[in-house]
Amino acid sequence: MTSLDNKNAFLELSDIVKIYGTTIANNHVSLRINKGDVLGLVGANGAGKSTLMRITSGVTTPEEGTMYFDGEKINWKQFSPTTASKKGIRVVYQELSLCDNLKVYENFMVELRHLFKGFGWRKKAAESAKEQLERVFPNNGIDVNKELSDLSIAQQQMVEIARAFSDPNLKLLILDEPTSSLPVEQTRQLLSYIKKKAKEGITFIYITHRLFEIMEITNKIYVLRDGKVVHSCDTSETNEDNLIEIMSAGANTVQVRKTEKARTEAAKINENVYVNCNEVSKGVLKNVNCKMYGGEIIGIAGLEGNGQKELIQAIYELPFSLRKKIDRKGSIAYVTGDRKAEGIFPLWNIADNMVITFLMRKSLFAYNSPKNVVEKSLKWYDYLKIKGESPKAKIVSLSGGNQQKALIARAMIADADIIILDDPTRGVDVETKRQLYDLFRDAAKSGKLIIWYSSDDSELDICSRVFVMRFGTIVETLKHEDISKDSIIEASFKSSDNKKERLDNTKRQFNLSLLIPILAMITIYTACGIIQKSTFTLFGARLLISGSLPLILAAISQTYIIGFSHVNLSIGNFMGLVSVLAATLLYENPALGTIAIIGVWLAYGLMGLLIRRLNIPAVIVTLGFSFVWYGSALVLQSIPGGQAPQLLIDIFNKTIFGFPNVLVILVLATVSAVMVYRSKYGTVLRGFGNREQSMVRSGWNKYAAVFNIYMISGLFAVLGGLSFTALTFSADASSMDSYTLLTVASVVLGG
Fold first, then answer.
1. What is the pTM of this model?
2. Do 186 and 217 form a contact (C-beta atoms < 8 A)?
3. Using one digit for the tens of pLDDT, what is the confidence trace for 231-256?
4. What is the CATH number of domain 6-247?
């Protein structure tokens, strides 16, 4: 394709080349988009679509090529997700880029921080999140005060989409498989909203394998194959069949869906494999009754959030409370739809990911040579046409659709009798879907039971039967000849005896487990008071707090590190060094001692930078630094001793307004820790601890984040070291060795 005059194009990419190892992801790709266009970008899994969009949004830098956006030539050296977002470029990624340890409105804040300044930012962010969700997805029912992890995949997808639309500076929105997890109604709402915003001048790049959406929503189409643009046209000039033929290089896939139902034979029942559910009630599930047998493909359908996933998970997990309600015979395998969170092992290669379920069924210490593992995976690797360097390549080197193929191959290699499919075709191209439909049919013909939940009702017409769920129970069973997208949608709105028990999870539930450490502390304190009544006096409380204050401050320090998904194995020795500095240099020369303590605090922060810069696990770096801290302390003071400065003794040992200073310091430290945790930037740091890549894509600096979290942690560790010297009146380099593991235990067990 030849590049046209960039002055007339809102976005133009010319001769983009991106290479990963031996794989050419983009091979001299060129495309152009005018303002207000909705451009459809289609192609098989591994065609290079997502790579091209990562380049467009500043996440990835190409080896060659140029980009013009809104009349400006992009300088690749200065182009990043931060600069892209400032220019108005936003992306909704196929793999969700939200932080599931943050609340819904907090996820809005970390992406659009400039909109929520000053006090009351939480209320502003919550109101904005609710309003934007309602604009894009009316009547969505999402509680913006919930943690993202409490939402379904479909709801998380809605949050990500709405968050992208909420940017007032939005000019170009790239949507990569945005409806892969969305139910029919929410898909319709999104397509309608895109049409509306396009008329207002917003430009879109829309990537999906659902070609009917491409035909409905776009005005231009580009087709990628093997990293190249092989076709471009106005949408009005083509149709679905033509696009499939171009994508597959003319392979015989034009009638992919039109003949699927006709080729499905009547199920031959295998009574040796079955699942019987008898009055199953748990959580959202209410009195579920059904029978399924080997030889069948059973579809699980209904409006999103009506118990479909809970049913298949109950069948797979078989919790103790339901073992009398669910009768299951046959080995079982589960193919998750959330491949990133629940499916792939990102540090493993493709072969290991494919055979793990099979290997788990062998004896515990059976030897499995890497060669045998690769050979075991090779049949399915070739059959499913996984596009990668080889089965030995890392699983993360594959596109999302090819990763999904590997997960399906995992179940097939395991040769399970019952295979549960949790939306397995989400984000998979048309040709692969045809392969998978054939695969499911062949598995059923061999006597296996396929239980298939899909968010795309149109593909369930190859099933033997479809159970349609509403309000947590099965409201209708559709036989093969009656199955169609329309019949499933119609049945999805049927009422049931449970209609008053709405599946509304918006009510916040208090987590009683949070009370356990508090109740344990109160119990121990009460027991001590019964034995020694003076424990309940201010003097008794002072003695208890004085002895535990250094450890409490150390635990707060470790909390920030663990919240960042690191572990600090040097905290005890670091506090020992601070304690020695206080009892030596600070006592002898207050100015020099203060400078020294500030210096080691800064070194503590630089330790975090070193971890990030060298990309070495925190446990290794911090363990190494523990010897640095300990050795430095021994150089200053080889044996216990020294003298605490009088000012330090007064700060930690006197009283204020009748209350012991140690109690006041403990309260202030706790309040400060909570304030940092609840602050805007504290929320950002928690986001980094959950999903660093997402935070970087949102424009936050990973080096600043790791330095700041270590400096905050270091501050509490410094206070802990100073308090130890003040309360014991001396110092010992090894006196707090045990604090390292104690703080890890305190944080993990104490919550």
1. 0.71
2. no
3. 888 998 888 888 888 877 654 444 44
4. 3.40.50.300
